[in-house]
Amino acid sequence: MKQVILVGVAASLLAACVSVPQRSDQVDQARAEIDTLAQEPLAQQAAGRDLAAARQSLQQAEVAQQQHQPPAVVDHLAYLALRHAQAGEARVSEAGARQEVARAQEDRNKILLDSRTREAQNAQTQAQTAQAQAQSAQAQAQDAQARAEQAKNEALAAQSQLASTQQQLADLQAKKTDRGMVLTLGDVLFDTGQSTLKPGADLVIGRLAGFLTANPQTKIMIEGHTDSRGSDEYNEALSERRAQSVANALTLHGVSQDSFRTMGRGKAYPVASNDTPEGRQQNRRVEIIFSDNSGQFAQAPH
To answer: What pTM, to 2 d.p., does this model score?
Structure first.
């Protein structure tokens, strides 16, 4: 009887653990950013659509958490919520700047009216004062207008960056995995048993370098993999050299060494059977794992 009770308790505890969604820093950051936007006095007036879109993406991320979907999916939805919230904040800043322009213009008009009233008493002095004040008001108006234009440009840039990052990763043929977005460079980039990149690899490396240059906040992990032929020591060293060859090529294309790390995995993580030539060729590869927009990597199974 005691064994039955213990088994039941253990099963209940296990079910409770499974049901608890994994915490995501991306979701927390997006939620905080949305709360900040929602508290802005001009949020509904100036950024109602952005706020609604951010809340919708956040809700989708939270649902994905509850459904235990891969962290990369949750983080992507949270990232969309964050970008919508940031775009909304930029719109709020733009609207506030426009109000400042209007207030500055009103102040300028008031200053001019007051100066005319006082002209009869001290025409020369009041004229000089009015001119100085008018110039100051005009400078404030121009400054506010410049800040309004800057806020508008920032809002457009935020939207453009979101779309551009998604399209660039798609163009690179990176795929979503539980480790994040992963780009696989096949064995055709190297001669058999060698770690020197073939000339044909330069096109792929150039496109990857272009993406990293355009998205300096994104970091990558470069992992080398081999098939099962040869000793563990040989394969680990070969995989490390191949990963380093890709890193060196990126450096030659102007990518900062702070943008990547390298690692040799040897033959430990095959993606296909090593019993056939085709399977071994798939296992001989270099994988590029992309971080999220804050430079953080998803939890890796390796």
So the answer is: 0.47
